[in-house]
Design goal:
InterPro entries: GntR_C, TF_FadR/GntR_C, Tscrpt_reg_HTH_GntR, WH-like_DNA-bd_sf, WH_DNA-bd_sf
CATH class of the largest domain: Mainly Alpha
CATH topology of the largest domain: Four Helix Bundle (Hemerythrin (Met), subunit A)
Keywords: DNA-binding, Transcription, Transcription regulation
Organism: Achromobacter spanius
Largest sheet: 2 strands, antiparallel
GO molecular function: DNA binding; DNA-binding transcription factor activity
Protein name: HTH gntR-type domain-containing protein
Number of domains: 2
Number of strands: 2
Number of helices: 11
Order of helices and strands: HHHEEHHHHHHHH
Radius of gyration: 19 Å
């Protein structure tokens, strides 16, 4: 069996800074240390620091101003650090980036190619997610089955293979995201369920563009819910 590759330095620094922001070492609106200070503190090169800061900015956690430094924009929930795999925060976020492209197109194709059996598999997983939420259970197994049913419905074995190759990362992320939803207001869990229902309805009605948009919006919102404890989606939906 191939040995697991150690985390990249930029990933490790991303995780460390995200943890420090999460636990309040750097409160919202506070300034992070300079790039040179971060290099000295963590014993890494300037390109490593810049990559970690760039990704924190892309995730909306910090904002960088040329000549003024980087400032904390939002603070993730402390539950995120507790729930995520050790050293795995950066990997989970990267997984979301890939899923947005991969699963958006899979949902689009599924809307034109799905069979009644595919729809039944999605509907069963969707109902299992609802039952799990009502029982205050995580429900990540049913969540994964829903997305797997969409990959199966798109009629391209490569989508299924790629989803399976990411199964550990996706399963870990779903566990984290759904656990965070359970530990917050009930409305957050309800929003997660509504997003899945919107994806299902678009596929059921054979609306490919709507299915792609719904999937990408769901994955974007999932990422934002994970990184921002106060996030509430306000995106206007197409009807």
């Amino acid at each position: 069996m191939r040995a697991q590759r150690p985390p990249r330095l930029a990933d490790q620094l991303y995780d460390r800074l995200l943890q420090q922001i999460t636990y309040g070492k750097y409160p919202e609106e506070s300034r992070l240390p300079s790039e040179m200070d971060l290099c000295a503190t963590f014993g890494v090169s300037r390109p490593v620091v810049r990559e970690a800061l760039f990704r924190l900015q892309a995730d909306g956690v910090i904002i960088s101003q040329r000549g003024a430094g980087s400032y904390v924009r939002r603070r993730p929930s402390p539950e995120l650090v507790k729930l995520a795999p050790i050293g795995g925060l950066a990997e989970l976020v990267r997984c979301m980036e890939l899923r947005s492209a991969l699963e958006g197109d899979a949902a689009c194709m599924a809307a034109t190619r799905r069979s009644e059996g595919d729809l039944q598999a999605m509907a069963t997983a969707l109902e299992d997610m609802r039952v799990a939420f009502d029982a205050r259970q995580v429900g990540n197994e049913a969540d994964f089955r829903f997305h797997q049913a969409i990959a199966n419905a798109c009629g391209n074995d490569l989508f299924v293979t790629m989803l399976q190759s990411l199964s550990k990362q996706i399963f870990d992320y779903m566990r984290v995201m759904r656990s965070l939803a359970l530990s917050s207001a009930v409305t957050r869990g309800q929003q997660v369920q509504r997003e899945h229902e919107r994806i299902f309805q678009a596929i059921s009605k054979q609306q490919p563009e709507e299915a792609r948009d719904a999937m990408r919006e769901h994955i974007h919102n999932s990422r934002m819910r994970t990184l921002d404890a106060s996030f509430s989606p306000t995106v206007a939906r197409k009807r």
